[in-house]
Amino acid sequence: MASQSQGIQQLLQAEKRAAEKVAEARKRKTRRLRQAKEEAQAEIEQYRIGREREFQHKQHASLGSQGNLSTEVDHQTRKKIQSMQANYQSNRERVLRTLLSLVCDIKPEIHQNYRITA
């Protein structure tokens, strides 16, 4: 009976050691998974930062050229407005005289299609 009790004790101790080993293996697995997840997060963050830098660079290059185009368009628009104002100032008197003469100087004439019927 003592050997049977001793065998049971050995089995219980072996089961306890096995349970401890399984628990330790689970802890190691959890640590490895956590570490892998942290490494993956760090890698993802590095990739995101790199893509963000690339995007900012392309955006700056694109907007920089658009900014130059916008400035050029503004400059050309100002030049055209100044040109139109100069034309207005130089031709204003002549156009007003022509309009007033056409409106005020009436020359009554019979239309060429009018037929006198008696």
From TrEMBL:
Signal peptide positions (record): none
Keywords from the UniProt entry: Coiled coil, Hydrogen ion transport, Ion transport, Membrane, Transport
Any one Pfam family match given in the protein's UniProt record, by short name: V-ATPase_G
Major localization class: membrane
Record has Membrane as a keyword: yes
Subcellular location: Endomembrane system
Similarity comment: Belongs to the V-ATPase G subunit family.
Binding partners and assembly: V-ATPase is a heteromultimeric enzyme made up of two complexes: the ATP-hydrolytic V1 complex and the proton translocation V0 complex.
Protein name: V-type proton ATPase subunit G
Source species: Huso huso
Phylogenetic placement of the source organism: Eukaryota, Metazoa, Chordata, Craniata, Vertebrata
